């Protein structure tokens, strides 16, 4: 079924887009918010550790509330129905599962500032100061591109290991797959080892290693959270103007990862990069081919 895979040219183009468009937009946003950030910290007069805890907490809480509220309203009032990915009744999450997810999320939100503060004080050996100047736009883009690659490789590797070893899947990753047809809050519903090694470390690993200024870290964290919330939302906004013209949404990844949950096979990465190189999205491509054939015959 190798012919189902994108051509090398198409795959290379997607890879280049992955490392340019999103990282460059994040770099622009980082430079735009930097003056506002300086005004905030000058008023607060907090320690570096406290500012890091605040930045991390707000970067987690605000996307959580805004993104999940939007998708919850879409589900409740039937907004954007034509963008809703197909769901069977058996794939819908139970109320009990949703309650457990919200409780776990509340604990996570409350502990985030504490963990961030302690990490800054006792884990980071050379932490960045809250007054660190912003690098050039080019260097800022390079940081986002580097973080993207680290996240792609880290998440794919750990995620695939969790599926390849039955004991790890049963005792760790199965919790996340209790959501067959996902909703946005399912993104962070996972066992603690998975949260650490599949989500947290791939997401913030590069930024911590590079010791980037706090605004860069905040923009990256917000971008990653919105991306993963959308990819679990059950909505695919591929043919909308923000996605089509500006690439502002994550429609392709939403469809890609949604198949991973509903079929529970393949599609281990966050994009097509490693799944293309290692041939782990064949069932997904076969499914799309069957859907296209059926559509044409009808």
UniProtKB/TrEMBL annotation:
Pfam family, one: FA_hydroxylase
GO CC terms: membrane
MF (Gene Ontology): iron ion binding; oxidoreductase activity
Fatty acid hydroxylase domain mapped to chain residues: 146-280
Source organism of this protein record: Bodo saltans (Flagellated protozoan)
InterPro entries, per the entry: Fatty_acid_hydroxylase, Sterol_Desaturase_Related
Domain of life: Eukaryota
Stretches that traverse the bilayer: 12-37, 49-74
Coiled-coil stretches noted in the UniProt entry, renumbered to this chain: none
A Gene Ontology BP annotation from the UniProt entry: lipid biosynthetic process
Keywords attached to this entry: Membrane, Transmembrane, Transmembrane helix
Major subcellular location class: membrane
Localization in the cell: Membrane
Protein name in the entry: C-4 sterol methyl oxidase, putative
